Description:
Strand content of chain A: under 5%
Distance between the termini of chain B: 50 Å
Helix content of chain A: over 70%
Oligomer: heterodimer
Distance between the termini of chain A: 19 Å
Radius of gyration of chain A: 20 Å
Largest sheet of chain B: none
Order of helices and strands of chain B: HHHHHHHHHHHHHHHHHHHHH
Helix content of chain B: over 70%
Shape of chain B: globular
Largest sheet of chain A: none
Number of helices of chain B: 21
Number of strands of chain A: 0
Amino acid sequence: MHHLKVTAGFFARQLFGLAGAAIVAMMLLTCADVMLRLFGHPIPGTYELVSFFGAVAVAFAMAHTCVEKGHIAVSVLVQLLPRRGRETVDALTSALSLLLFALIAWRSVLYAEDLRRSGEVSLTLQLPFYPFIHGIGLAAAAVCLVLLADLVRHLQGAFRG
Amino acid sequence: MSMTTIGIIGILLLVVGLFSRMPVGFVMAILGLAGFSYVVNFEAGLNLLARDIWDTFSSYGLTVIPLFVFMGQVAYQSGISRRLYHAAYVMLGNRPGGLALATIGACAGFSTISGSTNATAATMATVTIPEMQRRRYDMGLAAGTVAAGGSLGILIPPSVIFIVYGIITEQSIGKLFAAGILPGILLCALFFLTILLRVRLNPALAPPGPKTSLKRKMRSFAGIIETLILFVLVMGGIFLGFFTPTEAAAVGAFLTIVLALLRRRLSWQGFVQSLRDTTRISCMVMMIVTGAVIFGKFMAITRVPFELAGWVGSLPLPPYAIMGLIILIYLFGGCFMDSLAMVMLTVPIFYPVVQALGFDPIWFGVIIVLVTEMGVITPPVGINVYVVHGIAKDVPLETIFRGVFPYLLALLACCIFLLLFPQLALFLPGLIQ
């Protein structure tokens, strides 16, 4: 159990670092494009690259945001329950979330492979889409690890009594 | 089962799910997936899931959100919020209720670089609450003021809600930003008035501070210059059509870093912390947007939104009464739902109605922001109140909700002003080509 939590946290942190780097890259690339445009030499494909970086930033931040409980959730009602009830509700919702992210991971991989086979690329730079969608699949798998650790913890809490 | 019944069951489950302590974005995504799969089939639902996530995550229009959040976080780490408060404090602090007035002033100032209500509330609460506590302010007034003042973050540009509204309705984000400025100033004035009235009725709420010399006042003015420069460059650039909102946000974040480095106000740790917070906040916002997109697809195939819109639009009432009704619906819904999720889910419903009734889309954007501002401070799900409570832990939630109530009236008054004088919102955007 402890190992699972540590492993999930480790992966989540690594991806989170990449997400932060993607935001810095978005900022620098856009600024460079604006500056160079003044001299009549905009950077071609900025639009596409910024979109891709944006996707990486959000996807890779998902797992760590889960670890830090950074997603908006309403706990006014659940807080009123006794400890065991809280743990049961939390176990149930963690299980549902785990199912959601498992489906996201699985379907993103399928979707990426679909686009790879059909050879779809971006307009200006001709960059393939599929590696980025595989990235989302990977990020969703990392969220699954985090949620699995949560689920085990809540189940233990619910059954310990 | 008819489509309408399925849609309504979906909405009811959403309300239940929202209170389950599951992240709001996850609830919407799961129900959207389940509902869409039930109506069409599981395979189609799964395809929709993967596609919607990729499309939303990689939307160029939405990349403006992390960049503006970054600008605000760097500004916070480099102490801009503290300098703004200091300036407002020196100018207003010596009168009764002065620190509360200064809190609103500083919130308004910080709103010019921050696009989110909870970030503004969190940032300003850490700076202003200890000061008001030291001066023996009534904590309900103090905490309520920051929670309400933080809501200015989305009316004064930049603003996450204007960005999302602009993307949903395909309106110019530049015009929407411009439309928020005058109502933002009006709302500040109304907040000021609220404080002055409360202190007049009960002077013990907010004892006056010591007087400050004119020289000190002048010197403290320097504290707002950097904010002013950033606002003029970033918003001016958008208004003049020199760059897109995303470009403006990137340049704004970059300039904030450069200014902070020049003044030696940003350490490496501060930079890393601002980047961490930016990444986390952006992810949180995008999860809600994505969840709402998926749930919205399910709603669309049940046709419930269209029927609801048709019903509201065909009510035998004058347009202003219908608008009043829409505002009431938002006020009520805002009590129970996360504001951003509500905007994402309901704007597609009401926007066509509002257009058919002849209201201006930009004006309606400002109304949406105002009702959202109410939503973030009304119980039981007023996020700003929780944010402030998280920082001022010794102030009970009920006290903050009570303290915030008079500002709710100010927000309603601002809505009424906008209904009576739409030009308040439309004058500045009219100047933009």
